[in-house]
Design a protein that fits this description.
Elements (H helix, E strand, L loop, with lengths): L2 H24 L1 H4 L9 E2 L1 H8 L8 E9 L5 E9 L8 H16 L3 E7 L10 E6 L2 E6 L1 E4 L7 H6 L3 H13 L4 H17 L4 H14 L4 H18 L6 H18 L5 H9 L2 H11 L5 H5 L2
Parallel strand pairs: 3-4, 4-7
Antiparallel strand pairs: 1-2, 2-3, 5-6
Helix pairs in contact: 1-6, 1-8, 6-7, 6-8, 7-8, 7-9, 9-10, 9-12, 10-11, 10-12
Length: about 300
C-alpha cells in the first residue's frame, strides 16, 4: 500500500471508530444534542451514490454518519476531510454539491463539516455561494482546522479522549522533521498511549493510526517496532499482533532484495523465522555489507 493510501485508510478507520470522541473534542457544543445511546451508523453506500464526478484537486475523504438527536429526530453529519494538505479552490463547491445531492435523494436534515489537515493558516473555507442578479443559492458549513490545536498541546497531552492522540499525531506528522527526530516523536506518542491506561482496542487502533500517519524509512520502522515490543514486555502488555510481526519480516526482506540482486532461500527462511531484535541487527549491517552472507556472520 502506498504512503498516500495508507494515510487515507488511517483517517477513514479513525472516523469509523472514534466519531463520538471526535465530536466530544472538536465539536463539543453539539455533543450534548446527540443521543449517543442510540449509537451512530456510517452511511457509506448512500455516500457512494452521490460522490461520482464531484470536483476535487486534492485528496478528500468523505464520511456520512447517521445520528439521532435527543428529541428523537434522525440527523446526518457530512464530513469532508482534506488529507493532502494544501489549498483547494474546488473545496467549497464540493461541499455544496454533496449537500444538495444528499438532500435531493434523501430529504434528511444534514450538518456539513470540513476537517482540514493542511498547514495554511489563512485557508478557512466556510461557505459556497452562487448568484446571478438578485438570485443566489448558498451553503454554509462548520470548519475544523487541526492546525489550530497546535497551541493546545498541553491540553491534548493531558486529555483522556483518544481523539486527542489522533490530533497530536497529525500535528507531529505535519512538522518537517529529520527521520531520527520523527522516530523519537513517534515513540513518544505511542508510549503515551500505553501509559494512559486506555483499553486494548483503543491502544491498537491508535497505534495503527500513528504507525501509518508517521511513516519512517524501513530501517527506522523496524527500530520503532522493536522499541514498542520492549516496552510491551516491560509493561506486560502483549499487544503486537501476528500480522504486524509478519509485516516486519516482509519489510526486512524487501530491504535485502533492494540491496542485493539475489537473496538465497536459506537467508529468506532466517528472516521469516527471526525475532525482531535480529531483524533490526541485520538491517543495520546491510549498509556496509558487501554480500548477503556477511550480514549473517556472527
Amino acid at each position: 500500500m502506498s504512503q498516500s493510501n495508507s494515510f487515507d485508510s488511517a483517517w477513514k478507520e479513525i472516523f469509523d471508530v472514534y466519531f463520538k470522541q471526535f465530536v466530544d473534542l472538536c465539536w463539543e457544543e453539539k455533543y450534548s444534542e446527540i443521543d449517543w445511546a442510540k449509537g451512530y451508523k456510517m452511511l457509506d453506500k448512500e455516500l457512494i451514490k452521490i460522490a461520482r464526478n464531484a470536483p476535487s484537486k486534492n485528496r478528500v475523504i468523505d464520511k456520512l454518519i447517521q445520528v439521532y438527536r435527543k428529541n428523537g429526530e434522525e440527523a446526518w453529519v457530512l464530513i469532508h476531510l482534506e488529507v493532502q494538505g494544501s489549498y483547494d479552490s474546488d473545496f467549497e463547491e464540493r461541499m455544496f454539491i454533496y449537500r444538495y445531492r444528499l438532500h435531493d435523494l434523501y430529504r434528511k436534515p444534514i450538518a456539513s463539516m470540513a476537517v482540514l489537515t493542511d498547514s495554511n493558516v489563512a485557508w478557512r473555507p466556510s461557505s459556497y455561494r452562487m448568484e446571478l442578479w438578485d438570485s443566489y443559492i448558498e451553503t454554509r458549513f462548520v470548519t475544523i482546522k487541526l492546525l489550530d490545536y497546535s497551541n493546545r498541546i498541553p491540553e491534548l497531552e493531558a486529555s483522556t479522549n483518544p481523539f486527542a492522540s489522533v490530533i497530536l499525531a497529525q500535528l507531529s506528522a505535519m512538522e518537517k522533521q529529520e527521520p531520527v527526530e520523527r522516530l523519537i516523536s513517534k515513540l513518544e506518542l505511542t508510549k503515551r498511549l500505553y501509559k494512559q491506561g486506555l483499553g486494548k482496542d483503543y491502544i491498537l487502533n491508535l497505534y495503527k493510526f500513528i504507525d501509518w500517519i508517521m511513516a519512517l524509512p524501513p530501517e527506522l520502522e523496524l527500530k520503532y517496532h522493536q522499541a514498542i515490543e520492549e516496552m510491551e514486555e516491560e509493561l506486560e502488555m502483549a499487544y503486537s499482533t501476528t500480522a504486524e510481526r509478519v509485516g516486519q519480516r516482509r519489510l526486512t526482506l524487501s530491504l535485502f532484495e533492494r540491496r542485493f540482486d539475489d537473496v538465497p532461500e536459506i537467508y529468506r527462511l532466517k528472516i521469516q523465522q527471526a525475532a525482531l531484535e535480529s531483524l533490526v541487527e541485520w538491517c543495520s549491517r546491510l549498509q556496509s555489507a558487501k554480500t548477503v552472507e556477511a550480514v549473517f556472520e556472527e
